[in-house]
Amino acid sequence: MNYKIALIKGDGIGPEVVGEAVKVMDAIGAKFGHTFEYVDVLMGGCAIDAVGKSYPEGTAEKCKECDAVLLGAVGGPKWGHSTDPDKRPETALLSIRKDLGLYANLRPAALRPALAESCPLKNDKNIDLMIVRELTGGIYFGKPAGTEVRDGKRTGWNTMIYNEDEIARIAHVAFQAAQKRRKKVCSVDKANVLDVSRVWREVVIEVSRQYPDVELSHLYVDNAAMQLVRDPSQFDVIVTGNLFGDILSDEASVITGSIGMLPSASLGSSRPGLFEPIHGSAPDIAGQGKANPLATILSIAMMLRHAFDMGTEAEAIESAVHKTLQAGFRTGDIMEAGKTLLSTREMGDKVIANL
Fold it and tell me: What is the pTM of this model?
C-alpha cells in the first residue's frame, strides 16, 4: 500500500523531530512492505516569515489530499506579540483543526518503566491514562467573543458553548477508547457552576447507556487536577472539553517524566487525522541536535494505528522506543546519571536499529 503524508515541519525543533520520524516511517515501510509519499505544507511562524500569514491559502486543501498529517511544532517568541490573527501561529492550529474537522484529541500519558525515576511523584509510578479532549468547540471557538472599551475600561470576553451533538460525538470516542483499555471513563466538567457543564454531564450520561460494559464517573475540573497529582493510577480514560482538556493534558504530561515523550492524535469523522508531539517548538535548543524526537516517533505509531489500522507496525515502533530507553539511551530532557546522552539524530538511529 502507498500512503501520502502531509508534513508540517513548522518552527523551532519541528523540522528536526519530523525528520527523525520520517526516517522511522521509511524503516517501517521497508520492514512491512509499505511506501510513504511526503508532501511539505507550510504553516506557523515560518509561514509568516515566508508569505506573511501563519495559515496560507490552500493549507487545508493540501492536507485533505493526503491520508494523514504529521505536525512538528509551530510558534515561538518571535511571533508571539502580534495582534493580527494572521500573524499568530496559534491561529493556524485552531484553523486547521476546524477545517479538517478534527474534533477529538487523543493524548495518552503513560510512564514508561525505564523513565520511572523521572516521575516527579514520590509514590505512584503506575501511570497509564488517556485524555480525550474535545477540540473544535468550547471557549476557544465560541461566539460572541471580542474586546472593547466599556466605561473607560479595556474589557474582553469569550463564550463557552457546546451543543448536545458535539458532546455526544466526543463521548462516543471516549467510551470506545475505554472499551479497548480498562473500561473506565471519567468525565470532567464544572457542573456545579457552569450551565454548559450541566448539559455536558447530562449528554455524557445518556451516551454511557450505550456502553454498559464501561464504568462512568464524574469529577469537577479542579478536583480532577488534584487527583491527577494525588493518584493518577485511578484514571483510565478522561473525557473533557477543550479548555479543561488543554490544561489537564499538559499536567498529565509532566507526571510521566518529560513532555518530550508524549504523542497525540487529532481525529475527525474521516481522513486525514493530524498527529503531533505535545511539546512546543523549543526555540532555545532549535538546530542544536538536542531535541527529543521520541514523542514525534510515537506520534507516527499513533498514525499507523488510528489512520491506517496498522496495529502490528505501531507496536513495532513502540517496542523499539522501549528497547532504546531500556538500553540506557537518552536525550537531554530525560538524561539521568549513568545513561548515554544522544543527539536528536542519534536517538532516531537507535530506534531504527531496534526495529
Answer: 0.90
| Cβ–Cβ under 8 Å, residues 7 and 37 | no
pLDDT of residue 123 exceeding 70, the answer is: no
Torsional class of 277: left (φ above 0), alpha (ψ -120 to 50), beta (otherwise): beta
Per-residue pLDDT of 265-288, as tens digits, reads: 999 988 899 999 999 999 999 999
Q: What are phi and psi of 10, to 5 degrees?
A: 75, -140
The rounded distance, in Å, linking the Cα atoms of 284 and 265 is: 26
Per-residue pLDDT tens over the stretch 332-343: 999 989 999 999
d(CA 251, CA 242): 14
The sign one gets for the Cα dihedral 308, 245, 292, 93 is positive
Sheet holding 237-240, edge to edge: 35-40, 2-10, 68-73, 273-277, 263-267, 104-110, 128-134, 237-240, 184-189, 215-220
Q: Which residue from 282, 292, 263, 300 is spatially nearest to 350, judged by alpha carbons? A: 292
For residue 109, which of 232, 280, 240, 200 has the smallest C-alpha distance? Answer: 232
What pLDDT, on a 0 to 100 scale, did the predictor assign at position 239? 98
Write the pLDDT tens digit of every residue in 303-354.
Answer: 999 999 999 999 999 999 999 999 999 999 999 899 999 999 999 999 999 9
- The whole-angstrom separation of Cα 86 and Cα 91 is 7
Please state, rounded to an integer, the average pLDDT across all residues of the chain.
Answer: 94
| Phi, psi dihedrals of residue 38, rounded to the nearest 5° | -115, 140
pLDDT at 140: 92
Q: Which amino acid is at 179?
A: Q
Positions annotated as catalytic residues are 140, 190, 222, 246, 250
